[in-house]
Write a structure and sequence with these properties.
The structure is a homodimer. Chain A folds into two domains: about 140 residues, Cobalt-precorrin-4 Transmethylase, domain 1; about 100 residues, 2-Layer Sandwich (Methyltransferase, Cobalt-precorrin-4 Transmethylase, Domain 2), CATH 3.30.950.10. Helix content of chain A is about 30%, strand content about 20%. Chain A is built from seven helices and twelve strands. At the A-B interface, helix 1, helix 4, strand 7, helix 5 and strand 8 of A face helix 1, helix 4, strand 7, helix 5 and strand 8 of B.
């Protein structure tokens, strides 16, 4: 009997934003696989879950995924196992390793929970591991438990609606400023992810488009250090981080 | 002392998808305001919450919002209280009534929870009430508790990622087929809401665009009757309903 894999979104940081289902499954499974962005220190997803529920006695598998840029389009190719190569800087090998470790556990009949921050279907690296798992074992039982994404948590923290009636929402990384200008014309709400590296550029563009007063910047939504900026000129360098986004509501 | 208003997303239907925070606040507040789409019968949001937590002894305020089309663009105007008129068919009056009932409770010092299905910031009618509340009482304490939206629940049920790396997501009502064609060119993932009334048209358009095999239709995600269709030709009339959406993943 192969074990079942649960992919669980633990929400953005506030342990109270775990769902009842996430808590129940974490109580039941003997083994938890957690992603880590740094080799040292603890997994953020694990630390969120541990604040909600006692995980003493569970086996913890750590999967180390260095936070480097993936380059799907530029670097596509196929690796030795016939799996589409989608990364540089050794990420493939890390994902292969994580998939192997999870498969070993499942094959021994153990149920495993894989934790992701936020929601597992929104910008979660789990899907790189998923591709490997289903390639090797197409019949695995994989159950996704949705979580509160940073997008929902940010809108809630800012007290703003993202959409009403027939409105349209776009969610995109703040990478290409020209794309953003076009998108802002077509959509009622635009959510910019990964905005910390290009913050000044985006702010200038929004000022030029007369949208700066319709923009909210939220840093670390749902975490202890959550900050909400309705005036982008108040944002300081220390407020720029990976866990931040902008909501532009026209 | 004015009471505090909590706006709580109860998720898409599965009572286990309530967050710990939603459950705690529902235990604490003495009064719960629940929206209803029909005058008879029970509120869906309330029935979801009641499966997760015993609400006996709580005061329940029912707010009846008929499910008619809002026409923000065509029918804008200003009502007698200076609030932008955004609906037809008597919805304004219903929202005014709900706002009044909530304000009366808050002014008596009672904390109130307003329940929404899914997440309160995604296509939730609460914001029509919100506009009225802040107009009359700008200093109200309103706390939003995010919930699992039908979008996250649908992607989880279908086991599909909505976005990876630098991908772009669009969420839009299936109202204007031409918009959808343009959006499909620009975005990696398109989520079509309110698709049940135009299902055949959309299916034909997706076939024409050679995207039909990249599309999943999910009916009643996170509810007991959840159904997932990876082949749109299997969808029958009885599978078309308000609680359904399409995920097109290119």
């Amino acid at each position: 009997m192969t074990g079942k894999l649960y992919v669980i979104g633990v929400g953005p940081g506030d342990p109270e934003l775990l769902t009842l289902k996430a808590v129940r499954i974490l109580r039941e499974v003997p083994c938890i696989c957690v992603p880590k962005g740094k080799e040292e220190g603890q997994s953020l997803a694990l630390s969120i879950a541990q604040k909600a529920i006692n995980l003493d006695g569970k086996e913890i598998l750590e999967a180390y995924f260095p936070m480097v840029k993936t380059r799907e389009s530029q670097e596509s190719g196929v690796n030795s196992q016939g799996i589409k190569k989608i990364s540089v800087n050794g990420l493939d090998e890390k994902w292969d390793e994580a998939a192997d470790a999870i498969l070993n556990k499942l094959k021994s009949g153990t149920d495993v929970a894989f934790l992701t921050i936020g929601d597992p279907t929104i910008y979660s690296t789990f899907f790189y591991v998923h591709e490997r798992l289903v390639k090797v074992s197409p019949c695995l039982q994989i159950v996704f438990i949705p979580g509160i994404s940073s997008i929902n948590a940010s809108a809630a923290a800012a007290g703003t609606s993202l959409s009403l009636a027939d409105e349209k929402i776009a969610i995109l990384p703040a990478t290409y400023i020209e794309d953003i200008k076009d998108t802002l014309k077509e959509f009622d709400t635009v959510i910019l992810m990964k905005v910390h590296r290009v913050f000044s550029k985006i702010r200038s563009a929004l000022r030029e488009l007369a949208l700066i007063e319709k923009t909210i910047y939220i840093s670390r939504a749902g975490m202890d250090e959550e900050k909400i900026f309705k005036n982008l000129d108040d944002v300081k360098d220390e407020d720029l981080n990976y866990f931040s986004l902008m909501i532009i509501r026209k």
